Amino acid sequence: MSGESSKGHHKQWHDHGGTVLSSVNGFDVIDCAECKFKHVIPIPTEEELEKAYRHEYYTQEKPLYLERYRQDLEWWNTVYTRRYELLEQNLSDGARSILDIGSGPGFFLLNGQQRGWRVKGIEPSIEAATHSQKLGLDVENIFFSEETAPTLGTFDVINMGEVLEHIPAPADLLKLAHSKLNVNGLICIIVPNDFNPFQEALEGHLGFSPWWVAPPHHINYFDFPTLAGLLAHCGFEVLHQESTFPIDLFLLMGDNYVGNDALGRACHTRRMNFEKAMVQSGRGDVLTKLYTGFANQNIGREVVMFARAVK
Ligand SMILES: [Zn+2]
Asked: How far is the CA of 191 from the centre of ligand 1 (A)?
């Protein structure tokens, strides 16, 4: 792995500067003093990224993605139902419209539509957008931008799952999302929880390379405090935060699934079994409490954050 020599040193790129945490594929992850979250330098351009997302994502990088999504759909629906329940607890009775930015194959929106929500999605992947349209969903094959935002109307909720880590200027995107929310509107953000304590133990103590550093697809590397800070900076008040399952726990326990797809799938299946058992036995509330506790320790594979737009 090249770039080891710059780790731990300060590095500057235009207005962005900070300590180098990792160096992969010609990119350095810095703890940026300007942005107050971790991201790679150099930051890829919109043009470089657009090409990647229109075609590569589902067809090349994740060929099994849709097939596995369908296999896991019963579990995904328990995740989505819990998310809608949390949103509904924080909205007035009539407020049931949602825009999903980066709506993927559409199953999250389908769950909402079946609960009586008015749903809309935008999705840059042609394959995923077409799949959503075949499910009968209102999903457009566009990016969320200054140009497209005025055509979309306003919403009670904006969901962004696995989006902000890919965006060159996430603060601009969040401010734009803020402008599309109704009064008392909510945003739900899901991003990877990177450089978390379990990963640091794996890298520092057990000799793992930082497999979660994945430029150019992953530009930003958030955790609970830095995402909360960015949301506050963009005009949001955080209402609730929780983690997803700390899948990296399997690595600490000795199941090294990095680069081992079959073992990764087996670990993921155990996690799904655990969560389905809790929800189907009527104790989904325990998951909420457990994952809120993990979030408070910055543990868990992903950050899930619900925030209200301050208007
Ligand atoms: Zn920066």
From this structure: 17
Cα–Cα dist 172/142, whole Å: 17
Residue 241 lies in a domain: yes
Å from CA of 33 to ligand 1 middle = 7
CA of 198 to the centre of ligand 1 (A): 25
d(CA 139, CA 37) in angstroms, rounded, equals 31
Ligand 1 centre distance from Cα of residue 169 (Å): 9
Ligand 1 geometric centre to CA of 41 (Å):
8
Residues 6+ apart with CB under 8 A from 185: 95, 154, 155, 156, 157, 158, 308, 309
- Ligand 1 geometric centre to CA of 36 (Å): 7
- CA 42 to ligand 1 center in whole angstroms: 10
75-102: pLDDT as tens digits: 999 999 999 999 999 999 999 999 999 9
Query: What CATH number corresponds to the domain at position 292?
Result: 3.40.50.150
pLDDT of 188-229, one tens digit each? 999 999 999 999 999 999 999 999 999 988 999 999 999 999
Token pair listed for 107:
């199953």
Domain total in the chain = 1
pLDDT tens across 134-193, in order? 999 999 999 999 999 999 999 999 999 999 999 999 999 999 999 999 999 999 999 999
